[in-house]
Design goal:
single chain; 249 residues; mainly beta; 7-stranded antiparallel β-sheet; 6-stranded antiparallel β-sheet; 4 helices; 14% helix; 40% strand
Length: 249
């Protein structure tokens, strides 16, 4: 699924030809493998930001935290959605030249099966304060816990985010005791505008799960401001987000 395309400088590599991006699209939560490939291809390590953890961590730490699952973060009342129902991880993928890709992933614990209207939402929020970024593409995929892809009937581009933050909607539901958004990812590729010097760019990822409740009336997102969803009723919702991650290019 691809949206929000734009023409890149002919001299700039196409993100689709980046082996690190290609691998991450197929294996978004193989943090150790992604980092090893990034070091091999670009001589750069990848930093990961994990929900419920302050600041960036390395690949092995991100892998350990993500595999803790339900044991890692204890369930906490009074939330209707357990605090350990899901986690999110975000990271920048390096590239040659003026481009880079940011990946946001989520993963519900396999024994959590509670999806119903209204929709969930996820967003990658870039720091546009320097006015030096161009958003070139947004991709997204969702899966059942067993790896079966559910994107075509589940995810849609809510906001292309040109000059802002791309937002996707997810029609979460259950079928045969399987949650159709058990895990997945969202990525966005950006270019540094010609004439802008190399600098640090920031981004972060957020996912809001709505277990039950009224329909979503408004959705917006911004760097540091976060993902904001307005509802017609009082839903049982929970949002997880990463701290900002940075890459210089």
């Amino acid at each position: 699924m691809l949206a929000g395309s734009a023409h890149a400088d002919p001299a700039e590599p196409d993100p689709a030809d980046n082996p690190v991006v290609a691998y991450a699209q197929e294996n978004p939560r193989d943090f150790i493998g992604i980092n090893a490939l990034a070091e091999k291809e670009f001589g750069q390590s990848v930093e990961f930001t994990v929900s419920d953890v302050d600041g960036p961590v390395d690949a092995r730490t991100a892998d350990a935290l993500s595999n803790l699952g339900a044991a890692g973060f204890p369930e906490f009342a009074p939330f209707a959605v357990p605090t350990n129902a899901f986690s999110v991880v975000g990271y920048w993928l390096p590239s040659a030249g003026r481009g880079a890709t940011y990946m946001g992933t989520w993963d519900f614990r396999d024994d959590y099966v509670n999806g119903s209207a209204p929709d969930d939402f996820a967003s990658i929020m870039f720091d546009w304060s320097s006015s030096c970024l161009i958003l070139t593409s947004t991709t997204y995929n969702s899966y059942y816990y067993d790896g079966e892809r559910t994107t075509d009937s589940t995810m849609y581009l809510k906001d292309g985010g040109i000059g802002g933050s791309p937002i996707v909607g997810l029609r979460d539901a259950t079928s045969g005791f399987k949650l159709n958004v058990d895990h997945g990812h969202m990525s966005a590729s950006v270019l540094r505008k010609p004439g802008c010097s190399a600098q640090q760019f920031g981004a972060q990822f957020a996912y809001e799960h709505n277990q039950d409740g009224g329909s979503a009336l408004s959705v917006s997102a911004s760097f540091l401001g976060g993902l904001s969803v307005g509802y017609s009723g009082g839903p049982d919702a929970m949002q997880k987000s990463t701290t900002p991650g940075y890459l210089q290019f």
